Amino acid sequence: MRRFVRSHATELALLAVIAVICVFLSFATDRFFTLGNAFDLLNTSSVNIIFAVGLLVVLIAGGIDISFAVAASVVQYLTATVLGWIGGGNWIVGLIIAGALGVALGSINAFLIQRFRIISIVATISTFNIFFGLLMFFTGGVSIYNLPDWLTTRVVLFEREMADGTWAEITLPVLIMALCVFATWALITRTTTGRQLYAFGDNPEGARRFGINIGAMQFIAFGWLGLMAGIAGLVQAHYAQEVVPNALYGRELDVLAAVVLGGARLGGGKGSVLGCILGVLLVSITQNGLNLMGVSPFAFKMIVGAIILAAITLSNPSIERLLPFPKSRRAAS
Amino acid sequence: MADQEPDGSASRPLLSLRNVNMTFGGVKALKNVSFEVLPGEVHCLAGENGSGKSTLIKVITGVYKPEAGAKIDYDGQSHAHMSPVTAQAGGIQVIWQDLALFPEMTVAENIAFQTVTGRWPRLVNHAEMWRVATNALQRLGVTLDVDLALHNFPIAQRQIVAIARALVGEAKLVFMDEPTASLTQSETDYLLDIVRNLSASGVAVVFVSHRLAEVLEISSRVTVLRDGALVGVYPTKGLTQSRITELMTGKTFDYSVLHRDLSTSSVMLEVKGLSRPGEFEDVSLTVRRGETLGITGLLGAGRTELALTLFGMRKPRSGAVVLDGKPVRFGSNREAIAAGVAYLSEDRLSLGLIQPQAIADNMVIASLDKILSGGFFSSDRKRSLVSGWIRDLGIKIGKQEDAVSTLSGGNQQRVAIAKWLATEPKLLILDGPTVGVDVGARAGIFDIVSKLADTGLAIILISDEVPEVYFNADRVLHMAQGRIVGEYVPGATSLQAIEGAVYA
């Protein structure tokens, strides 16, 4: 128990903050504490969680990526176009195309970083501009509404009618999100590759001396984020039922804040899938609560910013001092 | 694994290198070096910083490729050069000075990291990892909580983790680069026992240390390098510390205690009953102008905590500090610097210097106001001040603009000293000034310290090596468990007596 608290201090602090907010919102609004609202939260958070677990892998490996959200927009556009050529397709084909395109775009980042030794923030700010510039140039900013039917049809996996006559539904994005979360969790905690990613982010020189292929690490990390971004792009198109070239522009900072909030360290070697999910949920619960409370949407960003600051302060390592069992001086038994 | 086992005969070397040459940026780092290790022996590699020891280790472990013409025979096989993979597969393990560990990962993962390397992804076998890690620790006779992240452990235990990791690799040849640099005496003794056990179980150990007493104690043969060239290979029997120093530096040194008359000198620092519960209690001491006060004691005795308190980075619970006749209570180290206190950190690598920045910039960082000209930063003034220090302290550098990280340990320490001299201090606290600095360079640093004392500076010299304070301080305080438990005057008390008290 004690060890669990020590190694999961960030996650527990986040859970506590989320719990406080939830209790407050349950009393402050009628609608917050309902199954329907909980499912809505999951449905709307799915895309960000998929992005977040992808970005987590890059952060763990000691990198950062600014370009993934606009890369997802590029993937949406290209996937819609390719689906048009092959005359429809289905979810499996769509996910494969989007995932492959995402991996390709992620690999461009990895290539720039590995081949030309550009630090990841600079490389991805460049590709962020290039991807978005190319997208706007070739599309002229025009949206695609003419998507295949399978992509625009809502897929309800579970539904239940509530006492007040509304429907609580879990939709396909939640399933896809769950699969992405599971896959990422398995990758980083259960495979040797995942442990190598952690080690590489923690101490690149130490990893190199073990003969770990640094280039491969970059391609795996950015490739994985690309894969997740591609999938998230397709899911977002499904959710929005249209492809708008600048729909995801700016999303990268929201996701980055949520992932760092979840305990991932800028600089590598640290971060967990659970923390990542909690980070995204904290932000979306706050937004959801503000919505339900009728707060002006113009105030959202400000309040969300304040919540992120408060939560990150709480999950600071120095908070360990406030724990009931202080860190022992000698960790040896 | 290599498919041939060593036949165990002492005459046949496990490792033999010939004609190894390495050049970095036009500088010859290794000149036609040969090197030999017998199976199961403890072999010491001695040389000053920059003599090529680390480069040689990196050639053997495949990090560097030597120039054409080199011949490496290891475990019955010949190679033109090694690769990290062949070296590791052949059982060559290195415990690097920086340990190359992963602080965020658990002890088990650090020790058994080898179980998750390899090109193709597999599932992590946590049970196997745990078993491998506990086995390795058991072989060393150590108990650690292997599920805890490594950053929770002090440096001495991280060292143990690094050694345990080497054992996991079915090591036949283990390199230890300065393994005792940050260990206390009892931890060092313990480590040397472990090295003996390794050697007795047939593992050859190549030991690199600046502490020559250890070298003499542990090794059977010593290979000495100087300026990238082989000086010779000597059996340890018959060698003395001063002989090794001579071989390493090509110079002779004399060791004698200081004899300075300070009776007329006024008191610069007076500390009365200073306490910080849990760190140090009731510490009283005085330092005169021109005096060097040595403070020794085991790691964790509260020496560094005391120094940081005098430097204003921690606030004392009770007690008084009088500096140059004026009572002081520092709210921060900025106030301490302004009042004339300078503190040279034990951890030069991470705290004392900004490694990637230019030598000149590091020197002026604590005294930026001195290089302002009409409110603006003056490059000319910086250049002339820096040139003065480089000359006075005899720092060997290429250009002032080079990064500090390009310098050797001894020269880095001089840069750190220059940084503080620039603030024109009254009291200079040197905390472990020779950690990671080799013998020749140590003498140079103490020359500087002695000259500084002669200019009227009060100096506190903190070190866990008793001989260091014995030969370089006017008085020696012994600190244990946060208290001053003894005061000695070198010469009046013998070195052995003080060592006996400190290491008891």
Automatic annotation (TrEMBL), chain B:
Name of the coding gene: rbsA
Keywords annotated in UniProt: ATP-binding, Cell membrane, Membrane, Nucleotide-binding, Repeat, Sugar transport, Translocase, Transport
Organism for this UniProt entry: Mesorhizobium metallidurans STM 2683
Family: Belongs to the ABC transporter superfamily.
Domain ABC transporter: 15-252, 262-504
Name listed for the protein in its UniProt record: Fused D-ribose transporter subunits of ABC superfamily: ATP-binding components
Top-level division of the source organism's lineage: Bacteria
PANTHER family linked: CARBOHYDRATE TRANSPORT ATP-BINDING PROTEIN MG119-RELATED, XYLOSE IMPORT ATP-BINDING PROTEIN XYLG
Pfam families hit by this protein: ABC_tran
Family annotation (PROSITE patterns): ABC_TRANSPORTER_1, ABC_TRANSPORTER_2
InterPro entries: AAA+_ATPase, ABC_carbohydrate_import_ATPase, ABC_transporter-like_ATP-bd, ABC_transporter-like_CS, P-loop_NTPase
Sample GO molecular function, one term: ATP binding
Gene3D superfamilies reported in the protein's UniProt record: P-loop containing nucleotide triphosphate hydrolases (3.40.50.300)
